[in-house]
Every structure is written in structure tokens, then in C-alpha cells.
Amino acid sequence: MEINLGIDEKDRAAIVEGLSRLLADTYTLYLKTHNYHWNVKGPMFQTLHLMFEQQYTELAAAVDLIAERIRALGFPAPGTYAAFSRLSQIKEVEGVPKAEEMIRDLINGQETVVRTARSIFPTAEKANDEPTADLLTQRMQVHEKTAWMLRSLCE
């Protein structure tokens, strides 16, 4: 069935390309944060263990919202590790870093997601895609705040 949302297919495809990158970054950050939750140790264990749990729980909900937006625009959402690896700017870390390295790595991941979301914004605005613009604004707010909170642990 034809999709008629008031956004032409070419613009929807461009938005979905960006949202697919955002989904891959968010899922990769989710997996990394969950890994760090499991493996953190040291004097900040309790604080970081709980903080990372809150963060990966929020990220798990976010991937669903992003994937559902892609589907609402009429395209399939990527959903494999191979696709996420190809699309994501966030790279995996080998081994188990020390707690402070985990924090710095997650700051970089949070900021990467912000940059990815921000890069999609002009395309969504040009197409008058307010729901996507709203989603991007919400995601940027969450990731900017999370990066700030993580940076605060390093001072």
C-alpha cells in the first residue's frame, strides 16, 4: 500500500538513512553500556554499576522508538550486528577497561550519538518531518545530559 504522510519517498529515504545510523549508534552504545555494567570494578563500583544500569535501560527504550520511527516512515529498520557494525560510528572495545576508561569511552559514545542525531536534523526539518525532529531533539537532550553527568565523574 502506498504511503502518503506528506513527505515524499526520497525525503523519507534520506531521513531513514540517518535514523538507521542513529539506531546503530544507540544500539552499540546500549551494548557497550550493558557490558560495562556487568564488568565494572573498583572503588566506584556501586555508583557506576547503578548509573550504567539506568543508562542502558534508557537506551533499550530508545532503540525501540527509533526503529518504530523508521517503520512509520515506511522502511525496514536495521536489526543485525552486521548492519549495526557497518552503520555505527561507535566502535567496540576489546577486553575490559578500567572504570575511568569506561567512563571516558561512554562520554565519547554519548557525544557521538548527539552528533549523529544533530546531523539528521536538517534533513528532517527540510521535509517538515516534525515527529522525527521531535525524536531527535529528545535524544540529543538525553545524551547531552548523560555525557555531562559522566564528565562530572572525571573531575
Which terms summarize this structure?
single chain, 155 residues, mainly alpha, Ferritin, 5 helices, 0% strand
The major pleated sheet works out as: none
Strand content: under 5%
Q: What is the residue-averaged pLDDT?
A: 96
CATH C-level category: Mainly Alpha
In a nutshell, what does this entry contain?
This protein has one domain: Up-down Bundle (Ferritin).
Structure description:
The chain is an all-alpha fold and 155 residues long. It has 5 helices and no strands. The chain has a single domain (9-153), classed as Up-down Bundle (Ferritin). It has helices at 9-39, 45-72, 81-87, 99-126, 130-153. The protein starts with 8 loop residues before the first helix and ends with a helix. 37% of the residues are buried.
Topology summary:
Layout: H1 9-39, H2 45-72, H3 81-87, H4 99-126, H5 130-153
